[in-house]
Design a protein that fits this description.
By secondary structure, the protein is an alpha+beta fold. The chain contains seven helices and twelve strands. It has a six-stranded antiparallel beta barrel with strand order 1-2-5-4-3-12. It has a six-stranded antiparallel β-barrel with strand order 6-7-8-11-10-9. Helices cover 38% and strands 28% of the residues. A hairpin with a 5-residue loop joins strand 1 and strand 2. Helix 2 (12-31) crosses helix 3 (33-60).
Length: 293
């Protein structure tokens, strides 16, 4: 104890200097927005790099299970491709072939309203009320705020913060995550009047809710729930889940439905960031409007 006190007295000036430096540093970060954001991004990158190193070690010991997941993903993509081909054939049968020839297919190809950036999940939580996902891609890879985040199975979240090499996504398992949805019937056709709002109320990460559905909607159990055409960050028709149970129809004229999520958030690994040219165009049009300044 005596030696400890002697050391403290010997270096008391240096210790006092360090304490004052820390207090000054805290005040700068606490009361200056620019410095606080810089420090926040730096801490996000640092912590993400630590989780990434840990994740790489875990990946080495999970190669067998990853191989099985890749097989399942390949099967899912084949099924979606087959479904898309069936839909194309159905549309062709409904169209006049002469008018079909007049469509500028090259112009359609050039538009490409959505592009995708593959990413890997570095950190992910599922059992909190406010869950987030850390990804190993950042601004250097073209990631931007408000990009949609999807897995091969369905919607996963939305980007809310971007660093140089990492980004942070608001998980769909978050009380504040909202999304416009619609339902498809057994023939993959839009069901009129089924537009509703996605909500997750906490608890089980396997289930969420489709809310504010008009009572006149012809929604049924096992119908597929997908992103609607009103979403600016997700492609329309991207799967979210299936209707598990219909709620009672209250007097207000709307009802809710429980949906089983198609994305298994407990095994979320390889994901894709969605870049929408529609959102970019709309954002540019809305700049400098009265009330937005």
């Amino acid at each position: 104890m005596y030696r400890l006190f002697s050391l403290l007295s010997k270096y008391r000036n240096a210790i006092l200097f360090l304490v004052l430096e820390l207090i000054a540093f805290f005040c700068i970060i606490r009361y200056n927005d620019a410095q606080r954001h810089i420090m926040g991004d730096a801490l996000m990158d640092f912590s993400a790099s630590i989780y990434n190193s840990r994740s790489n070690v875990d990946e080495f010991f999970k190669l067998r299970s990853k191989n099985e997941e890749l097989k399942a993903d390949a099967k899912y993509l084949q099924e979606r491709l087959a479904q898309a081909e069936r839909q194309i054939q159905a549309y062709k049968s409904l169209l006049d072939l002469d008018s079909l020839k007049k469509i500028d297919l090259l112009a359609v190809e050039r538009e490409k309203p959505y592009s995708f950036i593959p990413a890997h999940v570095v950190k992910n939580t599922v059992h909190k009320n406010y869950n987030y996902i850390v990804l190993d891609k950042g601004s250097e890879d073209g990631v931007e705020k408000d990009m949609g985040l999807v897995s091969l199975q369905g919607v996963a979240g939305r980007i809310i913060r971007v660093g140089e090499n990492y980004s942070l996504a608001l998980s769909a398992l978050n009380l504040t995550f909202k999304l416009s949805l619609q339902a498809l019937d057994d023939s993959a056709r839009w069901v009129a009047g089924t537009a509703g709002v996605y909500e997750w109320n906490g608890g089980d990460p396997r289930f969420a809710y489709l809310k504010s559905i008009p009572e006149t909607a012809e929604l049924k159990e096992n119908y597929t729930v997908v992103t609607s055409e009103h979403s600016l960050i997700f492609p329309p028709g991207y799967k979210v889940g299936t209707v598990l149970e219909l709620g009672d129809k209250p007097e207000e004229g709307f009802f809710n439905a429980t949906i089983k999520l198609s994305t298994d958030f407990s095994k979320l690994d390889n994901v894709y960031l969605v870049k929408s040219s529609f959102k970019t165009d709309i954002d540019s049009l809305s700049q400098n409007l009265p009330g937005n300044e």
